[in-house]
Amino acid sequence: MKKTGVAQVPRAIAGILFSFAFVLSAVASTPQYVVTNDDVMGNFSQNGVTFYTVGANGSLTFLEQVPTAGFGISGGYFPANRVRTLNAGNNQCVFASDAASGDISFINVNTLSLGGSVTGSQNDTGASNGIGLALNSQYLYASFTDASTIGTFQIQPGCALSFVSDVQAGGLQGGIVDGMAVNGNIMVVTYGDGSIESFNIASGLPVSNGDKQNSTGAAKGNSYPSGVDITQDGHFAIFGDTSTSTLIEVSDISSGKLSQTIAYLSPTGINSSNVMLSPDESLLYISNTQGSAISAAFFDKTNGTLGKGCRTGLLQGYGSVWYYLGGLTLASPNGTGQAVYAAEYGPTSSIAVIPVVSSNGKCALTGAANTPVSDPNSPGLLSIAMFPPRAF
């Protein structure tokens, strides 16, 4: 092959190439982590957030644990997500609740260091069943299960939190806040007694939309909406039910309020307390909390309907190392998420790694060869998240 000289690149094109290279460099430098709220209990054992790096095919490698400012309870409501991540402007943050001490810690992702912690009102604690978290780019919301309140915290530069106020929230049958999801100006809440409600958060503080109701599944008995997710366009709220089967309910919220839910039943799994949409919204991932498996259902984001999907087999270590499946997160904020991660609750906690294959209306979920990945810092893992998070 003839050797040629190096051609001179015109300045305008060189500038474009330089800018493009800078963008690529910036994207490449964004760290990618899976994080856990270890929920460590006890006056002498401080809680912490464990960071894992994400490798090829979604593999996880332990990086380090960052201690929080308080103590956990090693248990509580399955869908009360105790750890959330934020990637907004200069704020790259992890927020983790400490249920026993009633505080919320904030961690800077860039330095992997604790920035501090904040509390709500005097009675805002979560020693009974945890403190669930939901957020947008401006506010973080915390469900305090002891007082059944929702606290509002403004997100400040450097990931700091400033307490604004709290509101009382309770179900039709006296249930306390269970799961929460936020999208745009709407917050959707489940109460663990079969009832659900939405709030307008346009001004920051939650204001009830006056639509509190029992779900369709709850009205039929033995099913209670627990986990909740909202589509990217805010058209549908999707509920995963605590049930003797896999029961998913969908509500059209395009009016700004909850409509009566439509229930979808599958007999192939037990319990469906945690749900999460894939980034492209083609699949709904379901944690069969007491069924030792992860399910996926095809989702039509245009009309809000669910179709038959796929399911894992018995996950490794069930019944001997861990006993319940908790929260879900993903390996990638794009497409189907590349792999699903599930918190495995037990005295020796771990994370299931489940690669996703989806094509032509068919999908497959299989346990990775190196799964489960141990979380040696957690005596009861229920909540995990990814950074950077999904876009909605």
Can you walk through the features of this model?
It is a single chain. By secondary structure, the protein is mainly beta. It has a single domain (37-387), classed as YVTN repeat-like/Quinoprotein amine dehydrogenase (Methylamine Dehydrogenase, Chain H, 7 Propeller). The protein is built from two helices and 30 strands. The strands form seven sheets. Strands 12, 13, 14, 15 and 16 form a five-stranded antiparallel beta sheet that branches. Strands 25, 26, 27, 28 and 29 form a five-stranded antiparallel beta sheet that branches. The chain has a four-stranded antiparallel beta sheet with strand order 3-2-1-30, with no helix packed on it. The longest helix is centred in the first third of the chain and has 19 residues, at 11-29. The chain is globular and about 45 Å long. The termini are far apart.
Count the E strands: 30
Give the CATH H-level superfamily: YVTN repeat-like/Quinoprotein amine dehydrogenase
* Uncertain regions spanning at least 5 consecutive residues: 1-28
Structurally, the number of domains stands at 1
What share of the residues does DSSP label as strand, in percent? over 45%
Total of helices: 2
Question: What is the CATH T-level topology?
Answer: Methylamine Dehydrogenase, Chain H
- How far apart the termini lie comes to 51 Å
**Residues in helix, %:** under 10%
Structural class by sheet pairing and helices: mainly beta
CATH architecture: 7 Propeller
What's the average pLDDT?
90
**Globular, elongated, flat, extended or rod-shaped: what is the shape?**
globular
- Main sheet: strands, sense, barrel: 5 strands, antiparallel
Kindly provide the radius of gyration, computed on alpha-carbon positions and rounded to a whole number of angstroms.
21 Å
Name the CATH class.
Mainly Beta
